[in-house]
Amino acid sequence: MTPLPKTLTGGLAPLRSSSSGGQALLRSSICGGRVRAPSSGSKGFTLLEVIVALAILGAGLLGLLELLSGSLRLSGGARDTNAASVYASQRLEEALLAPRPVEGVETGLFGERYRWTTETTFLPEDEGLPFRPTHIQVTVAWEDGAQERAVSLVATRWDRKSAGTGG
Questions:
Q1: Hey, how many other C-beta atoms are within 10 angstroms of the C-beta on 14?
Q2: What is the pTM of this model?
Q3: Which end of the chain has fewer surrounding CB within 10 Å, N or C?
Q4: 156 neighbors 123 (Cβ within 8 angstroms)
Q5: Strand partners of residue 139
Q6: What does DSSP assign to residue 12?
Q7: Rounded to an integer, what distance in angstroms lies between the CA atom of residue 46 and that of residue 54?
């Protein structure tokens, strides 16, 4: 085997190939030879490929923005529902702990946004029971855009009948 001659640029010189009759360029990364670009005619992306890639990227970004706005909307709704539940629970406990409940409807506000309504109803008494049932329903409502939303809690209070009423 004959050694290959070196060129001035440090690469390998072309050799005559006996089988093909032409020249073949030998390249070696060890010797620091030159590497030519493929000669297939493709030197980059076409305008159509770039437009399609940008359209796919834009559609993906729009989808992500829609997910973000949806999650913000849902978290705001959960915050409002949670606050209304806490207000309704607070108002229901106040009604249950009142010394002498009064039958009827009471209304009020929690801040500027939430409205509460407490409905107290005396249920029919059972002569065999020493307790008188009282039905209490608290509803807290608020505006959520164009819709009105509400949370309701219901409880029954059992008061001991007084000795003078035959119980």
A1: 14
A2: 0.60
A3: N
A4: yes
A5: 117, 152
A6: B
A7: 13
Are 139 and 88 spatial neighbours (Cβ–Cβ below 8 Å)? yes
Q: Which amino acid is at 64?
A: L
Structure tokens at 91: 């108002």
Alpha-carbon distance 44 to 53, whole Å? 14
Query: How many C-beta atoms lie closer than 10 Å to residue 159's C-beta?
Result: 14
* Residue 12 token pair: 């390998």
CATH number corresponding to 65-165: 3.30.1300
Task: Identify the CA nearest to 33 among candidates 65, 63, 9.
Answer: 9
CB 105 within 8 A of CB 119: yes
List the chain domain ranges.
65-165
Per residue in 99-116, pLDDT tens?
888 899 999 999 889 999
* CA gap 137, 105 in Å, rounded: 10
Please state, in angstroms and rounded to a whole number, the distance separating the CA atoms of residues 155 and 96.
8
**How many angstroms separate the CA atoms of 77 and 149, rounded?**
10
The mean pLDDT value of the chain amounts to 82
If one counts every other C-beta atom within 10 angstroms of the C-beta of residue 153, the result is 19
Tell me if 167 sits within 8 A of 102, measured CB to CB. Answer: no
Distance CA 77, CA 84 (A): 11
